[in-house]
Each structure stands twice: as C-alpha cells, then as structure tokens.
C-alpha cells in the first residue's frame, strides 16, 4: 500500500509540473542593424507594411518611408503638419495620417505617395488605426477628447465617440471593438466600432499614465504599457487585470507578436523590454535589450519578427532638438 501511495504522489507531482506554466528561455534579441535616414525634425509613431517591406515614420510635418530591404529612403509624403501616426489600408492602396497641428487626416496613395484627400477631424489627432471589420479609420483626438471615425469607402467622417479622457494609443480587435488608453484616467475605454458607443471603462490597477497598447487577438489579451513601469495585461472581454510585469522607464509604445507570443515595450531608458506569454494568464519578462537613447517608439516586422525603433542624436542642452541628419532606424532581432 505504501508503494502505491508513493507512486500516486509521484504521478500527481509529475502532472502538476507538466501542467504548470513555464517561462521561455530568454531570446537573444539585440541590435542587428542601423539604417541611417537623416532629415530634420522629431518623430512619433511607426507603422510597418511587412508585405511591401516598408516602414512609415511620422516626422514632424511629413511621412518618411524607408525601404527595409534596401535600407534606403523610398520617398516622402509632404504637408502633414504635426503628424503623429500613419494607418495603412492595403486593400484600398491608401495611407492615412493624423495631422495634430491641423486637426486633419491626409489620405495618400501607397504607390505614388500623392495626396488624394484631406479630411477634417477632431482637434489634435494623435494615434490613428484601421479596423478592417468595419472598414473605418479611427483618430484619437487629444484636445477634443474624442474619436473620429472615417469610412474608407467615402473618406468621410461618419461619427465621433466621446472619451471623457485624453487618448493615447488604441487597438482594434477586428471583431467589432476598439480599445483606447486614457492617459489621464489610468483606464482603457472600449467602444463599439460600428455603433460608435462606449461599452466599458476598465481601470489599469497599478498602471499609471498608459501609453502603448497592443493585443493578442487569439487569446483576448490587451497589453497596456504604463509610465509606472508596468505592462498591464487585461482580459479583453471583462477587463480583469491578469498580470503586471515590470518594464523600463519612459515607455511610449507596445507591440505583440502572435507567432512568438512575445510582447515588447520600447522605453526611454534605452531598453526594449521583452515579455513572454507563457499562457494566457501567466507572463514572464525574458529580456531587457539595450537599445539607444530616445528609441521610445517602434513597430513589429511580422515577416522577420524584428522590431524597428527610431532615434536621433539630441543637441546638447536643447529639448527635442536634434543634430542634423542624425535620424536613424534601429533594427532589433534575434541574434544569429
């Protein structure tokens, strides 16, 4: 009988160990390439078209497009005053920019890079995203604290969503909902992408001043990177806080790679925090990759699984002023 009990206990222990979540081995991510781009001015959000091998960078008053294969500047979209971001609509061969100084969106042709329309939206549009399920582009308007919804078939604003808070980044689940970080409320707001009505407001627990937002659409998890040095992981259906792994200081962007189950936070302290989704309820920090000062915004190249960040050399003693032609793309990926 004693042998049977020991055997059963051993089996139970083995089952427990087998089922318990385990952290992945730290990936050997590091800076693998630098692409000099040059040009004057600051920058904000980045967007990658992995199929076309193009990186779209928001540069003060224009879009700069970098050819990721050739490592060269492929062209520019001018006259985008105070641009913050670019949303791509590949099925329409169109790009949309959020022009913060003008309260407008520039619509441009992805092939010719020529402007084809200009749309008036709310005041100081910041983040901009595309939701293929509703065929709408959404701008997060910082000054009017609302969202403008643009129909990409007509390039007309079809409605707004009041936020009652200052929006930062947003993400669509591509099934009818959009999630928005509210920086001054420490919340994520959820709205119906078709009906344009608020559905929920969820507190971020220990997360303060949320900036970047990304999503694991398969497992219904949101990743909100906050200036309190937390990546707050939320259940996208009920808003429950699932995990709060630590990240670096001064985060500004977040991306999730569904193929590697890795979430990334680009931070102002010259680090890129890498968090592994062990399972939908358990998350492990597996690396803090050394990058460069100022590399706080990023985009995921879904084809290579590399991360593209950008920065420039600051002028001594001058806030948000940079040395001429020092702007560069930093590519971080698994070591060879």
The low-confidence runs, each spanning 5 or more residues with pLDDT under 50, are: 1-24
Radius of gyration equals 21 Å
**Beta-strand percent range:** over 45%
Provide mean pLDDT, rounded. 92
Question: Would you mind describing this structure in some detail?
Answer:
The structure is a single chain. This protein is globular. The protein has one helix and 28 strands. Helices cover about 5% and strands about 50% of the residues. The strands form seven sheets. The chain has a four-stranded antiparallel sheet, with no helix packed on it. It has a four-stranded antiparallel sheet with strand order 2-3-4-5, with no helix packed on it. A four-stranded antiparallel sheet has the order 6-7-8-9, with no helix packed on it. By secondary structure, it is mostly beta strands. The chain has one helix spanning about 1-20; strands spanning about 30-35, 45-50, 55-60, 60-65, 70-75, 85-90, 95-100, 105-110, 115-120, 125-130, 135-140, 145-150, 155-160, 165-170, 175-180, 185-190, 200-205, 210-215, 220-225, 230-235, 240-245, 255, 260-265, 270-280, 280-290, 300, 305-310, 330-335.
């Amino acid at each position: 009988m004693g042998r049977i009990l020991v055997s059963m206990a051993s089996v139970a222990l083995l089952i427990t160990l087998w089922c318990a979540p385990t952290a992945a081995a730290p990936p050997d991510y590091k800076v693998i390439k630098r692409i000099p781009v040059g040009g004057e001015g600051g920058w904000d959000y980045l967007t990658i078209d992995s199929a076309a091998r193009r990186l779209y960078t928001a540069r003060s008053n224009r879009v700069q497009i970098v050819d990721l294969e050739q490592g060269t500047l492929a062209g520019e979209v001018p006259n985008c005053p105070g641009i913050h971001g670019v949303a791509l609509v590949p099925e329409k061969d169109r790009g949309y920019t959020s022009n913060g100084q003008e309260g407008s969106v520039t619509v441009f042709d992805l092939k010719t890079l020529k402007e084809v329309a200009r749309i008036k939206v709310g005041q100081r549009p910041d983040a901009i995203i595309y939701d293929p399920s509703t065929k709408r582009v959404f701008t997060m308007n910082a000054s009017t604290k609302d969202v403008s919804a643009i129909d990409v078939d007509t390039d007309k604003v079809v409605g707004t969503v009041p936020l009652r808070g200052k929006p930062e980044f947003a993400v669509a689940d591509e099934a009818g909902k959009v999630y928005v970080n509210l920086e001054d409320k420490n919340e994520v707001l959820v709205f119906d992408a078709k009906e344009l009505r608020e559905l929920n407001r969820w507190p971020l627990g220990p997360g303060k001043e949320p900036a970047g937002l990304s999503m694991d659409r398969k497992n219904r998890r949101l990743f909100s990177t906050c200036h309190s040095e937390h990546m707050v992981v939320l259940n996208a259906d009920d808003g429950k806080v699932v995990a709060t792994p630590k990240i670096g200081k001064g985060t500004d962007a977040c991306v999730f790679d569904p193929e590697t189950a890795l979430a990334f936070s680009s931070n102002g302290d010259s680090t890129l925090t890498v968090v592994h989704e062990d399972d939908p309820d358990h998350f492990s920090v597996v690396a803090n990759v050394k990058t460069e000062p100022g590399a706080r915004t990023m985009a995921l190249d879904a084809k290579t699984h590399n991360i593209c960040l950008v920065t420039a050399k600051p002028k001594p003693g001058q806030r948000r002023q940079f040395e001429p032609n020092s702007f560069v793309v930093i590519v971080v990926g698994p070591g060879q």
